[in-house]
Amino acid sequence: MSAENYSKVHLQRVNDSYSRVSVNDKTRKLFDAVAGQEGTVQSHEGRSVIAGLLANTLLIKDGQCPEIKAMSKSMARIQDAEGGLTTQTNMGPWVPEAWPLVTAWYADFPLKDLISVQDMTKPLDYLFFSKLKAGTNKSETAVGELVETPLGPRTIHGRYPTGEIFGEEITEFDTFDSTNKCTDTVVAYFPLLSDEESIEKVKVVFTVSETDVTYVPCGILDGKIRLAQSATPTVDSGSYLDLNSGLLSFKEADNAVASTVTKAVVNYVWNLDFAKEDTIPTLEEDIEMVPMRAKPRALAMKWTLFAEFLKKSQFGVDLREDNTKRVLSAMYQFQLRYILDNMWEYNTGSTDSVVIPNSTAYSLDVSSAQVMKQLNITSTKIETNSGRLEGNRIVCGANFKNWLQSLPNTLFQPTAHPDSDGFLSPREIGKYGKYVVYYDPTRAATEAFMTYRGSEWYDASYYLGMFMPIVPTDAIAIAVTVRESFCSMEAHKFHKKNCVVPLNITYAE
């Protein structure tokens, strides 16, 4: 594939992370099959992830995806060893389990709405991010600096393409001229326009001895815009702005022996007819490639033939089916701990404090409003750091969880089924205002952190890429013991570390 086509394919993935479903015939069949299964994820995103995972899971030998048979039929038929999946023999007797394992993975994954989960097309894949950078120095940003920032496009401000300059800050001045008693500098763009409307927009604020003094135009003389202090707008101060050269000259007091001006902030309008390539602000696109490398993980499982017989004879439970679910749940715990520990240990957000009023003098509404105000401060910090969205996800320890669960449903809406199938594991516990709240039992009681998650795949601080979800290997009989392994290949990328902000949750009277 040519470099051009390669970039086109991957940029398309940036614009639409679901595109592989429609362009790949086998993946589309898998997507349709997932959509036809009752109880699976019904969102387009969820179906796409599962379809991609199924396709990658079946890429076991020679990089080829086998034909899919009867995928749109019932789960029972898919689990039928005679008609389910046509795949390689190294999947062993667990071939019928490949479909339910993969389809259960995304649907049951507790953190799928906290982080971004994407399937991977290859063991080494890339995330692509498009950035705009300054291409010239004729602005507040130097060449190579980011233009798109959390506070907006600071290079343009909507003004330079029109010739109108607002708030150009100058801090470098020529040596004080003791003969003329003036200090000179030059504005970034010239020549200036001299029509009435343009002259009216000229304003200069000089910082003199740490005091700001505003100057306005009081006329044009000898090709110079004469400046007067705003307090006396008709009295020429001796300072001026040269129309042709852009020279800004500040006239000191007659008794001055050295310059006392340290800064000038200037508004003016320059003539675009004289614009050149090096004076027109230039934006350059830069594509950032963030690697995602899937690493293998494995968990072994052993049982005896006697245990298998007892379970089936006494309880009517197929040991392999039962253990599949239990091992799947156990591997979830490893995945969850790895993700949450990474987000906690390696974030770069500065810690904020949240104090919960614990006095009976406050009503629950008042206490809740005070807590929400503190959380919103952190939320705005994340909006600034991300340049995208406010913080809207919280992972907490016992203090915040216990307080939330003491609130009425009008303030905190608990999830319908917060239990985790018998595992004391991280899980979503409810919604508090705009915040979706997760409980992590391994966090200290006072600990929590806030992050954000949006509707687009890139709107998250942490990415989980799944190349091969949890799949089983052949069962090997050793004497009376059976050994089985469950393997996965996944990639982790903590991309926006400053968009995870630790919280210290305490009570106070």
Describe the structure concisely:
This protein has 509 residues and is α+β, with helices and mostly antiparallel strands. Helices cover 27% and strands 31% of the residues. It has an 8-stranded antiparallel β-sheet with strand order 5-12-7-8-9-10-11-6.
Number of strands: 24
Derived structural class: alpha+beta
Radius of gyration: 32 Å
End-to-end Cα distance, whole Å, is 66 Å
Percent strand = 25-35%
Q: Say what oligomer this is.
A: single chain
Note the overall shape.
elongated
The strand line-up of the biggest sheet is 5-12-7-8-9-10-11-6
- Binned, the helix content reads 25-40%
Give the count of helical stretches.
Answer: 11
Low-confidence stretches: 1-18, 59-96, 151-159
What characterizes the major β-sheet? Answer: 8 strands, antiparallel
- The overall average pLDDT, rounded, is 77
The count of domains is: 3
Describe the structure in your own words.
This protein has 509 residues and is of the alpha+beta class. The protein folds into 3 domains: 3-108, no CATH class; 157-280, no CATH class; 295-508, no CATH class. The protein has 11 helices and 24 strands. It has helices spanning 3-15, 19-23, 25-35, 44-57, 75-79, 95-108, 196-200, 305-315, 319-345, 364-386, 398-404, and strands at 116-119, 124-134, 148-149, 152-153, 164-170, 182-186, 203-208, 211-221, 224-229, 240-242, 247-251, 261-269, 283-293, 295-304, 352-357, 393-396, 412-414, 427-432, 435-439, 447-451, 462-472, 476-478, 481-494, 501-508. The strands form 5 sheets. An 8-stranded antiparallel β-sheet has the order 5-12-7-8-9-10-11-6. Strands 15-24-20-16-19-18-17 form a 7-stranded mixed β-sheet, with helices on one face. Strand 8 (211-221) and strand 9 (224-229) form a beta hairpin. The radius of gyration is 32 Å and the shape is elongated. The model is unreliable at 1-18, 59-96 and 151-159 (pLDDT under 50).
